[in-house]
């Protein structure tokens, strides 16, 4: 994209649509709030709201990546792209982008929430940059910091931060991704030499898909089964040097390049294997489990299961940041598609001489506006997740319960936002037609890069299953030792749609105090309270139904129990998804509860309503089957949505401008105002031609004569 | 992929899953029909069934593309990829792949159905090859053949077929894609020199996204507004030379490279513009409209609208072939994902010592098997489309009504199959986890290349809208001049779920004579008749409802009418989609009606039922709201689907083997048997370790002591 094109970008703050010539009779609602003579949102204030708690850090990051050196070059061949992204990591170091998560004594800034907030924005420059820096500092560095102890920090953290020690995070194996506990790599302690022997016993135990493994990693944090004195103490993490100063593998270490991927080709993913590689005992990252020189194992967490999950939980930040990056990437796609849809014209309406702007089509509104509402919800829920994360990792609220909540929240939100990203980016690309398929317009690249977000750092379905199990466990807790009266009382409550306060995540009725200014809701039959009741009631009943169906498992054989669980797996995942949707809806409602500006509050309430109704429409069959909506009310949901789309249509440009992207972040020529110029030129041409009296007559008009 | 890997490919005919060690108690159903002790499908016979009417041509094409010269090289930079695909086109010529659609007098083979059938298979080699050859012979060559007359055929067809004259098809402009009638390029006749002047009056009128335009095209078939004697006779097609023998643009011609795209980067898409470029009168492709030397226009089709649609209709083959290619591409993705899911293991079930094969998970079955059923339906409906196409283009059944039916059928099926392709390929990629993201496993490349299929050759939503309008028109025809009694009688019929015989496509009750062996249906409450009634009744009622809501438009102002239509646009598109789904279901039912082999008929009937119920589940809310299913029956639909998935699970490998792909077509290492070998190696390792007595004890087992 040329500099000129960047300068031509008319947004934010001056929607080109304001300059449109109104066409009498075209099936158009107003294109802007000004035309609609309505209160409009305070765009800058909404930007603040969306950027959330760490808005200043985000703005810093966005300012930094205005430098074209950070931008993805479309179509760049893989080898050059990899080198470019490595260079961008060095630039990040220079700009202090690598320091925020780490302690000040090693050159860090000790600010966890800000770290992730800034990191998420890198997706706007190049998702490869976001993920490669995530590998270096969020995974490799974080493993050393979170799973290691002071001696390890002293030894390596400064070099990690400065990128003098690039590293890989070697957890996943070819044979085991989601089931980390079952990995095959072994780390066997040899008391004679006080060394661990890192070994790959078979092909499936090769470490795989690791960023920094193919080329740049000098070391890796390797997860392996810790075996000492003939006992396997489960998965632990070890610091293992990989390459010498010339980049050649050290003795016993080998590997392969993963080659071209569906996206993120700025990252050198690869495979690693180890043939009895010896590392000093020192290199066991021993915060949660240690081995004495004689081989005696010790841990302050006696339960092997809890120890394992504590170690994994220390690395939750990957999921938190993916939730945010997916949300930001989705916003970029919506900004591009809505801006284009506000300028692009196609087909006359049959009612006037002019062609219709895409966003005036009922179908086009339906394609984009509910997704815009969803994306707004994600901004609010991600900020909540980020605050929870910061509370735990700053130590301010670091309790086991809060850690567990954080992990569940991340496991519920990351799947939803990453799937939404793919669906929304795809819809945006299709809504831009052929121009959406050109790499220069960014949408295809975003889809390709974000594709893997739905299966890495925890496969989305597996994460939701974890959330579902947590919901089931919380549900069961309520009835531990319950007598018949209590169960009956619960059954009664169920029918009125109250929510069991499950999953320890949020005391629903409490924190959603206001439910987002009911008074401002469109005059629907489904105001905020009803939306909440429907969304929350669904989670409750699904979990309660599944729990009921699983009850026989308690007295069944393990095989029968497994079969019973398997028969309910798909629905449990659906219940977890419903839970995540509820959390997003609540976060959205909380987020707008404090808004004072009347226009902003009004429009955001409509948008929240659109999100709520969109969710209810998606699950309409469930509400009908379960008697929670009558056929009549259910039939009205889609009509409400159509009305909300019409209401929001004039505010669409304001709402995507409120993402606060500068031209250097957008970079897509179709969202630069160029389309508007082309339309204007074409219309001027036809107007001049008509005025000249030299326009050819149309055959049709002749035939009429 | 190495030759060795290709050789290792165990499929089709020897599912690796047959070698599995059964695990007592794991939540597994049998992995193969052999294990299930059930009748199984006759795989070869089903391959014949799927390959359809032109199965021999398809087999020839598949044999040809076993040559690695035709294969896509993952990650190949764009310039090399473009050259490679051009070379593949030359190979196609050598293999007679370019001749089938053209008359024998120019070296053709005069076999339209076979031409498209063979062409569709190229997607297995490289979708860029499929589309670039489609540009050359299906669009550029076809425009000359279908829109030109003998003098044009004599002049150019032989060179087109031999690729001595590579060309572009210059219809779409930057400013107008779907609305072809509104393109800006002009062709103004100059009687003094007997030339047309081809001109691009403004930037939006540049031709855009044209394959062969950036590099290889020597000429183009350019669509432009034909203006003569001061009258615009609408869009016609002209043969315009572009480049000289050295590849330089001729005077007045200019252009740009479209650059990198989301996929299909083996094709040199580009833009063209014309500055008063003069071409001889000869170059007007004058089959449907001609200009005499004095500038007098003549046409055998007096209506400008009908003439325009006749010209566009002559090019329908693009949509027909995309429907088939999308179906074949989807099949490849399912073959890869199902084969992998039958070998890959992850997590133990808690019930046995072994890990569970992915396809044994309830959720995994739900993700893949309904899509397999859908893909089967598409094979059958595509063959029907192909037969209709061949009937028209061979001249055997070339009536205006049949042409219209063909166009509507293509417009209904192409959107469904191309969207299904993207969704299924994406689900397949996610179902393969990280390995699905590696380019070598093909899924990401397929998604990238097929992405644009949903918006080119007619944007999917626009095509469905056309179908919807056709359904509305047919509906209206039934009541033209109807009196109150007739309307009342229709209303009565509606409630019993009978179908109006709309869209002239298929006399539903007639051609679906058997409804696919009801006796073989699973004992459901929703047998074939009910499925058909529900699917057909939905189309009927949606159209009838929309027609009712649009009725006031007849008496409204154009603006009000446009607004009313716009308010119903999204639902009209939904109705058209429902119509397409019905056609697919009927084609599937027809396709299996003649199957004699008991096992094949049984399994395919289950699969057809799964397809039908999957559609009904998707639209369950509609059935409930409209009183067509009770809550109780609706709740049962999902359970039926779960049961069908369990029934079909042992047949899944047979069903994807029946696609008939050879290792040279699949090429994905994860579907080669490599995963099975890795699993076997790992299990052997642990078995040997246990047998050796040297296996470390697990910490957990120690704690129990």
Automatic annotation (TrEMBL), chains A, B:
Coiled coil: none annotated. The keyword Nucleotide-binding does not apply. Its EC number is 1.3.3.6. GO terms for biological process: fatty acid beta-oxidation using acyl-CoA oxidase; lipid homeostasis. Gene3D superfamilies: Butyryl-CoA Dehydrogenase, subunit A, domain 2 (2.40.110.10), Butyryl-CoA Dehydrogenase, subunit A, domain 3 (1.20.140.10). Its cofactor is FAD. Residues 168-277 form the Acyl-CoA oxidase/dehydrogenase middle domain. It is an enzyme of class 1 (oxidoreductase). Residues 1-33 are annotated as: Disordered. Residues 533-671 form the Acyl-CoA oxidase C-terminal domain. One of its GO terms (molecular function) is acyl-CoA oxidase activity. It comes from Microbacterium dextranolyticum. Residues 313-472 form the Acyl-CoA oxidase C-alpha1 domain. Pfam families: ACOX, ACOX_C_alpha1, Acyl-CoA_dh_M. Belongs to the acyl-CoA oxidase family. InterPro entries: ACOX_C_alpha1 (IPR055060), Acyl-CoA_Oxase/DH_mid-dom (IPR006091), Acyl-CoA_Oxase/DH_mid-dom_sf (IPR046373), Acyl-CoA_oxidase (IPR012258), Acyl-CoA_oxidase_C (IPR002655), AcylCo_DH-like_C (IPR036250), AcylCoA_DH/oxidase_NM_dom_sf (IPR009100). This is acyl-CoA oxidase. Keywords: FAD, Fatty acid metabolism, Flavoprotein, Lipid metabolism, Oxidoreductase, Peroxisome. It is found in: Peroxisome.
């Amino acid at each position: 994209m040329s500099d000129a094109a960047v300068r031509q970008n008319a947004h934010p703050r001056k929607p080109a649509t304001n300059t449109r010539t109104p066409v009498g009779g075209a099936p158009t609602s107003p294109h802007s709030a000004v035309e609609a003579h309505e209160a409009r949102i305070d765009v800058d204030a909404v930007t603040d709201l969306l950027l959330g708690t760490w808005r200043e850090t985000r703005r810093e990051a966005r300012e930094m990546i205005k430098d074209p050196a950070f931008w993805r070059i479309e179509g760049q061949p893989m080898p050059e792209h990899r080198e470019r992204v490595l260079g961008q990591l060095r630039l990040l170091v220079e700009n202090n982008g690598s320091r925020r998560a780490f302690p000040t004594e090693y050159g860090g800034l000790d600010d966890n929430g800000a770290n992730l907030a800034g990191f998420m924005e890198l997706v706007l420059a190049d998702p490869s940059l976001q993920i490669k820096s995530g590998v270096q500092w969020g995974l490799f560095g974080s493993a050393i910091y979170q799973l290691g102890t002071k001696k390890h920090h002293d030894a390596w953290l400064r070099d990690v931060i400065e990128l003098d020690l690039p590293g890989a995070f070697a957890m996943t194996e070819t044979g085991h991704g989601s089931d980390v506990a079952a990995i095959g790599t072994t780390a066997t302690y040899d008391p004679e030499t006080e060394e661990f022997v890192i070994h790959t016993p078979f092909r499936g135990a090769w470490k795989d898909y690791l960023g920094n493994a193919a080329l740049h990693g000098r070391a890796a944090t390797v997860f392996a089964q810790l075996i000492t004195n003939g006992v396997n103490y489960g998965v632990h993490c070890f610091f293992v040097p990989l390459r010498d100063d010339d980049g050649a593998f050290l003795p016993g270490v080998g590997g392969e390049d993963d080659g071209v991927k569906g996206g993120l080709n700025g990252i050198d993913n690869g495979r690693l294997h180890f043939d009895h590689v010896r590392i000093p005992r020192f290199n066991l990252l021993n915060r949660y489990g240690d081995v004495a020189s004689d081989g005696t194992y010790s841990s302050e967490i006696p339960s092997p299961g809890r120890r394992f999950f504590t170690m994994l939980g220390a690395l939750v930040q990957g999921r938190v940041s993916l939730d945010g990056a997916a949300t930001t990437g989705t916003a970029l796609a919506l900004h591009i598609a809505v801006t284009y849809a506000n300028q692009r014209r196609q087909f006359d309406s049959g009612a006037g001489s002019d062609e219709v702007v895409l966003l005036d089509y009922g179908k086009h509104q339906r394609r984009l506006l509910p997704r815009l509402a969803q994306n707004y919800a994600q901004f609010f829920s991600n900020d909540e997740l980020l605050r929870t994360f910061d509370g735990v990792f700053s130590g301010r609220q670091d309790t086991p319960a809060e850690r567990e909540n954080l992990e569940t929240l991340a496991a519920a939100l990351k799947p939803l936002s990453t799937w939404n990203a793919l669906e929304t980016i795809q819809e945006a690309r299709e809504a831009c037609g052929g121009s959406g398929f050109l790499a220069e317009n960014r949408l295809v690249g975003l889809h390709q890069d974000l594709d893997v977000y739905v299966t890495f750092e925890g496969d989305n379905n597996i994460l939701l299953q974890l959330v579902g199990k947590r919901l089931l466990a919380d549900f069961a807790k309520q009835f531990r030792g319950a007598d018949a009266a209590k169960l009956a009382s619960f059954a009664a409550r169920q029918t009125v749609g109250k929510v069991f306060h499950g999953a320890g995540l949020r005391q629903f009725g409490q924190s959603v105090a206001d439910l987002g200014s009911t008074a401002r809701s469109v005059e629907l039959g489904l105001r905020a309270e009803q939306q909440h009741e429907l969304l929350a009631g669904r989670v409750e009943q699904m979990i309660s139904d599944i729990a009921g169906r699983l009850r026989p498992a308690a007295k069944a054989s393990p095989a029968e129990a497994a079969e019973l669980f398997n028969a309910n797996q798909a629905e449990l995942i659906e219940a977890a998804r419903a839970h995540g949707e509820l959390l997003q809806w609540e976060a959205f409602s909380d987020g707008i509860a404090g808004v004072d500006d009347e226009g902003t509050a009004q429009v955001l309430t409509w948008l929240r309503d659109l999100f709520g109704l969109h969710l209810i429409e998606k699950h309409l069959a469930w509400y009908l089957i379960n008697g929670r909506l009558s056929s009549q009310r259910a039939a009205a949901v889609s009509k409400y949505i159509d009305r909300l789309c019409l209401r929001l249509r004039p505010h669409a440009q304001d709402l995507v401008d409120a993402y606060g992207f500068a031209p250097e972040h957008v970079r897509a020529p179709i969202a630069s105002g160029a389309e508007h110029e082309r339309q204007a030129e074409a219309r001027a041409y036809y107007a001049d031609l008509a005025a000249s009296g030299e326009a050819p007559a149309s055959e049709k008009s002749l035939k009429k004569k």
